[in-house]
Design a protein that fits this description.
Chain B: Its main location: membrane. The complex is a heterodimer of chains A (about 325) and B (about 280). Chain A is mostly helical. Chain A is built from 14 helices and no strands. Classes of the chains: A mainly alpha (about 325), B mainly alpha (about 280).
Chain lengths: ~325, ~280
């Protein structure tokens, strides 16, 4: 088992590294091969007042006049040593630009995840606790509803009700605790739907198992049955789902940060898109891919340790055969 | 005799099928029918001008004359929502089309060819899945230029990974089936097996995913339009209407009406996709 696990872990780590490098190349290709040349378009804008000679000098300074594959090789070899290049707009190193805002997004994403988990488990518990005809159906419809509401609408409604009408938080103080919690709710609601769907399906499955019937026949109440028996086996697969929602949290942050006026990675993306700041976009996409890959790697590596029922492809059955032989 | 028998048999079949459709699914189909007809013949549902308003009638509350009220230029919001439907819905269809065709092909080739081709394509799909889909759509649309068509293409690109993964797993599942082995033994060519056995078996899963992605694409495209990455005003994509509406907090209907239409549409699509999955 241990040797199999080590092999499995090594393979997954190598795959993760390859995926991250490819994500960087992919973004580079999308940005530089697709039609449209935002860099020279910006430079040639008459408002910027560059002469033709200056443009040539700037373009060759950034190495943009060389063949695409040379540029790619260059930027890849810089990536390996942790250099993500320089922002075309501000001239500052991209790592510094991202470093300044990454904390705010991390706080937002983690609080949104917390909101999503609390909501999902509340819904999950509700579907086990409420009687079939007393609101359970309504509760079961919640994830589908959450998945159908654009997250910017949730944000706008929260702001209009809780900031403008009830005065619970001020829009100006966008990084404050109250504003952050409401931003987290807006970002967390669609995520909670994905977690809740899997959780409800698992709870239904576990509740139909014989051990649950035995526990019920021994007179265990609904709450204790949920907490002591159903919760653990049902929430283990949720680990994988949570890892998959990382993308949702990072992508959704672009809109949520814009609505709530926060300065984070999302608003940096928004600004870089309007100013066509390609190195920043490339770095953010790579960072997002790294986050996604690392979180999913950790989840996949943890999972066989958390849930002993999971077998690694082929590994466990061979172990059993060896035990059975003598 | 036979002529008389045919009409009497038809309603029986129809009634039998109708009984199996839950009421919420029937409502969902009705909502989609309305939305689709809005996008095909908007003029049938409203006689007012979506672009030029009556300035004296600005910021009117929803009423019988103006179902969704009027905006800051005195334009009827219902008319603008109806005329914005075509672009909001067709761009979602374009996105799903790109996902199905490109993703489906990648999955098909990967699953069918196996070996190193499969490994290479699997890494490509991993990359597509590792980049948050909304972020990917934003980057692609920024590279192509801010237009609704490009937003649709970007959304499609961000959906390719999911379609490829589902198609590949379906192909692998079918390829191992006994009837495919039998077909090989009877001398069936790879092409024959692909067209006759693999594609029909995979199409159901891909169709269900396509319906789900259609709803998701409406949301993503609305998000891109909300950020201003689609066609500029006077276009009236739902996301753009909501984005403009949010600047007038005192006229709350400017946000709520287009938001309601968006939510109703996506909710209906999701309900239908869930129903399809259940009847599988």
């Amino acid at each position: 088992m241990n040797r199999d696990y080590a092999k499995y872990a090594l393979r997954r780590v190598l795959q993760a590294i390859v995926v991250v490098l490819l994500a960087y190349v992919f973004t580079f290709v999308v940005i530089s091969v697709l039609p449209g040349d935002p860099v020279t378009n910006t430079l040639r804008n008459p408002q910027n007042g560059f002469t033709e000679e200056e443009i040539t000098r700037i373009v060759s300074y950034y190495g943009l006049d060389r063949p695409v594959h040379e540029q790619l090789w260059d930027s890849l070899s810089r990536l390996v040593v942790g250099d993500l290049g320089v922002s075309l707009r501000s001239g500052l190193p991209v790592t510094r630009l991202i470093g300044e805002v990454v904390g705010s997004t991390l706080v937002l994403a983690l609080s949104a995840l917390a909101v999503a988990l609390v909501l999902a488990f509340a819904i999950g518990f509700g579907t086990r606790y409420l009687p079939k005809r007393g609101g359970q159906g309504l509760l079961r419809a919640f994830p589908a509803l959450f998945l159908s509401v654009p997250n910017f609408v949730v944000g706008l409604v929260l702001i209009s009700v809780f900031a403008f009408q009830l005065g619970l938080f001020r829009v100006i103080d966008s990084e404050g605790g109250a504003a952050t919690s409401f931003a987290a709710i807006a970002l967390g609601i669609p995520v909670s739907a994905q977690v809740a769907e899997v959780l409800i399906a698992n709870l239904d499955h576990e509740a139909g198992q014989e051990y649950a019937a035995v526990a019920r026949s021994r007179g265990l109440g609904r709450t204790r049955l949920f907490l002591r028996h159903l919760l653990k086996p049902s929430s283990l697969p949720v680990v994988t789902v949570i890892a998959l929602t990382v993308g949702e949290l990072l992508g959704g942050a672009v809109i949520t940060e814009q609505i709530f006026g926060r300065t984070g990675v999302g608003s940096l993306v928004e600004r870089s898109v309007t100013t066509q700041d390609l190195p920043v976009l490339q770095a953010v996409v790579t960072l997002a891919a790294v986050t996604f890959v690392v979180v999913n790697l950790v989840a996949d590596l943890l999972y066989p340790l958390l849930d002993p029922r999971v077998r690694l492809a082929g590994g466990r059955s061979r172990g059993k055969a060896e035990v059975a032989a003598p | 005799m036979t002529v008389a028998a045919v009409p009497s048999a038809l309603p029986a079949v129809r009634r039998g099928q109708a009984a199996k459709v839950p009421p919420t699914v029937a409502v969902s189909f009705a909502v989609l029918a309305v939305v689709l007809s809005w996008s095909v013949v908007p003029g049938l549902f409203t006689a007012q001008d979506p672009v030029n308003g009556v300035p004296a009638d600005k910021f009117l509350r929803p009423s019988t004359a103006h179902l969704f009220g009027t905006d800051h230029l005195g334009r009827d919001l219902f008319t603008r929502v109806v005329h914005g439907t075509a672009s909001s819905v067709t761009s979602a269809l374009i996105a799903v089309g790109i996902g199905v065709v490109v993703g489906g092909l990648i999955g098909l080739v990967a699953g069918f060819a196996g070996g190193w081709v499969d490994s290479v394509l699997a890494r490509l799909v991993d990359v597509l899945l590792a980049i948050p889909s909304f972020l990917l759509a934003v980057v692609v649309v920024s590279s192509l230029g801010f237009q609704t068509v490009n937003a649709a293409i970007a959304t499609g690109v961000s959906a390719v990974g999911v379609f490829a993964r589902v198609m590949r797993s379906e192909v692998l599942k079918t390829r191992q089936a006994v009837f495919v082995e039998a077909s090989y033994l009877q001398g069936g060519s790879r092409w024959h097996i692909l067209v006759r056995h693999v594609l029909p078996n995979a199409s159901r899963s891909v169709l269900m995913l396509a319906v789900l992605q259609f709803g998701l694409s409406i949301l993503v495209i609305a998000g891109l339009a909300f950020l201003g990455y689609g066609d500029p005003p006077p276009a009236s994509d739902w996301g753009l209407l909501i984005a403009t509406g949010k600047d007038y907090p005192l006229a709350a209907w400017l946000v709520y009406a287009p938001a309601f239409v968006t939510i109703a549409t996506v909710l209906s699509v999701n309900r239908i996709s869930r129903w399809l999955r259940k009847t599988d």
